[in-house]
Every structure is written in structure tokens, then in C-alpha cells.
Amino acid sequence: MTDRTTYVTLSGVRRRGWTDTMVRDLLGTPDVQGRDPRRWSLAPVRLYLLARVQTVERTPEFAETSALAPGRSAAAGAYAERRQPAVLTAIRAEPIEVPRLPGPELERRAGRHRQLLGARSPGTKQGAATTASAPPSAPASPGVPSGALVRWQVSYLRQALSRYEALLDGLYGETGRGEAERLLRWRLYEAIAAAYPALAGECRRRIAVER
Asked: How far apart, in whole angstroms, are the C-alpha atoms of residue 74 and residue 69?
């Protein structure tokens, strides 16, 4: 299942076989515009939810438009196949830098993150991307069971590391993306567990479930 917080850049969309005209007519406005939430950079970007891109790719309109650009889909698939080994190597070698926060601060941010997820409506496009940078002003709810608080903290840190999903650009569908996504999630959870030993059990649980 595709992560609803996974984004693809405009270049990544193009490598899937889309033309700029197709992006404009079928995708429309990017889901995120401005600063890339996955990198500590002020460079402007355009990001599209991968799940939305994949949904459009299954429509008759996409098939009809793609037929007017013969060879693009085959070329995109060939590119993805060539890129997959390099992506796996890059994911294995990439240093994962987990934010180091005092316990109370992490709890506040995790609680705020949880509140934003709960308040986000299905039609809100940018909610997923703004959670990682949300102000850590709200404390965790009093009386929250410790197990739930641990889950919230892991979820917050996982979202804070979503910038590493840029490593997946150029992979999609069955052409190796699933394997690369699993490897990346495993590495992110391992890094969180190493940075916060108290969260290691929940990280191991998630790794086991995703296997």
C-alpha cells in the first residue's frame, strides 16, 4: 500500500512517462509548493502525492493521453529498472540523521503532530506535508497511555525523516519501488531506535509488521 505522505517531484513525475502538458491537464496544482519539507533547504519545489499520481495513471484519460506520446511509458519503465540497483545502494549508504530532542519536547511535538493528523480533513491537500514543521506548542494530552505516546513519538519522527523519500525518485509501480520503500522504512526505523532506545520496541514492531 502506498504511503499517503509519499511525494514525488516534478522530475520524478516526468520519468514516469508524463509530459508537462499531461501534468498540467491531469494533475493540476501540485500538492505542495514552496520549500521542500523533506530537505533542510529553501529551494522552491513542486511535489505531488504519489498516491494521487498513481490514481490518475489508472484513469482512461491518462491512457488516452499517453497514447499520444508513444514510447514514453516504455522509456520510463526502462529508466526505473536501470535506476533501481543504484537507489538500493544509495539507501543502504545514506546517513540517517534523526532529530535529537529532549523527552518533554519530543512528547509535545508528537502530541501536536497527532492533533494535526486528527484534525486534517480528507480534502486537505497539504496537511501531510506540514505536520513535520508544525510548531511544537501543544503538549501531549494528559492521561495518554504510555504505549500510545510511544507510537505518536515514532510516527512524528518518521514524518520528520520523510525528506529521505527523495531517494526513491524515479522508481514506481512494481519496478523495484516496493523493495526500495521497505528498505528505506527499515533504515529509518532502525535510526529512530538507535537515537531513542525507549522507542526501539515500537520501531521493531513496525518493521516486523511491514515485513
From this structure: 11
Per DSSP, what are the bridge partners of residue 47? Answer: 9, 32
- Phi/psi at 85 (5° precision): -60, -40
What residues contact residue 136 under an 8 Å CB cut-off, 6+ apart?
Answer: 105, 108, 109, 112
> 193 pLDDT band (50/70/90 cuts)?
very high
Helix, strand, coil distribution of the chain in percent, nearest 5: 60, 5, 30
CA distance 198 to 97: 18
The answer to whether residues 118 and 157 touch, using CB atoms and an 8 Å cutoff, is no
**In one letter, which amino acid is 67?**
A
Return the domain boundaries, the chain.
7-79, 103-210
> pTM value?
0.55
Q: 130 and 37 in contact (C-beta within 8 Å)?
A: yes
Quote the CA–CA distance of 182 and 86 in Å, as a whole number.
15
Q: Provide DSSP, 109-146.
A: HHHHHHHHHHH--TT-SSHHHHGGGS-TTSPPPTT--H
Q: Per DSSP, which regions of 52-187 are E strands?
A: none
Q: pLDDT tens for residues 8-65? A: 888 888 888 888 788 888 898 888 876 554 454 445 578 889 889 989 988 888 877 7
Q: Assign 32 to helix, strand or coil.
A: strand
| Confidence class for position 165, pLDDT limits 50, 70, 90 | confident
